[in-house]
Amino acid sequence: MKVSEKLAGGVLLFSTCIYNASSISAQNDETIPDLSGIWDGGFSVRPVNGVDVPWGEDNFPKLNARALAYQEVWEETMAPKYDCQPASSPAIQYDPYAMQVTQWPDRVLFRYEKDDQLRTVWLDGREPKATDFSLQGFSVGHYEDGSLYVTTTHFVFDIAGFDDYNGIPSSAQKVVTERYWREGEELKLTLTVADPMFLQEPTSYTTRWLPSGPDYRLQPYDCDPEASRTSVRFYPSKYD
Asked: What percent of the chain has pLDDT over 90?
């Protein structure tokens, strides 16, 4: 490679970095909400997890034939949570645990007490690569009108990827969009999930967190696979 080509490549990379940095810094304080802190999502803040929470008659997903077939063969002992596989979107946001949000200029970090999970939301305009598939997917976001908007793609197939109690899977086509904003002391979220492999149409829920106490710190989840699987060892099976 010629020296001039190397210099041109360096100038292009530098210009791209400057553009991304200036795009992020150009957003004023009114655009960027203060989401940082440790947030309480426990039982005292919102309804207890269950079959109808956060999915009820008004927003329960309309399943296609493929999803209904999976649901027909589902039984509780199949749930990956009993092998300590972490929950993913759209379930982990509603699990009754605390969550820590850290805002940096180029990213927002969501650390969940449930399953010791960390999600990174990139704000610098990067795009996912073919190797970026994972249980939590690849998240990009931006600030607009006092809210953080997040789009997550590149999920891997998950037999309990919609939630861990309704027996609804999710595919690599799952797309989760989130809007986070503040209402007084509350941190609010509206989440929408689309997955044409299993859902006839997108569906949404809205929830909230409240600030945790000033001395609260996230607790280790410390899932023990042997103890977790033991808890369902004696569940009756439709296949026995």
From this structure: 74
- Distance CA(16)–CA(53), nearest Å, equals 44
Predicted model pTM: 0.86
In this structure, the strands spanning 175-183 and 99-103 are: unpaired
CA distance 160 to 70: 10
The residue length of the chain stands at 240
Q: What 3-state DSSP class applies to 225? A: helix
Give, in order, the Cα–Cα distances in Å from 108 to each of 103, 104, 122.
5, 6, 7
- Provide the pLDDT confidence category of residue 16 given band limits of 50, 70 and 90: very low
Query: Distance between CA 173 and CA 196 in Å, rounded?
Result: 7
Class of residue 215 by CB neighbours under 10 A (exposed 0-12, middle 13-18, buried 19+): exposed
Let me know: does 87 contact 194? Beta carbons within 8 Å: no
State the CATH class of domain 31-215+224-230: mainly beta
Please count the CA atoms within 13 angstroms of the CA of 20 that sit on its side-chain side. Answer: 14
Cα 91 to Cα 161: distance, rounded to the nearest angstrom: 8
Instruction: Of 163, 110, 109, 155, give the one whose Cα is nearest residue 135.
Output: 155
The mean pLDDT of the chain is: 88
Domain locations in the chain as residue ranges: 31-215+224-230
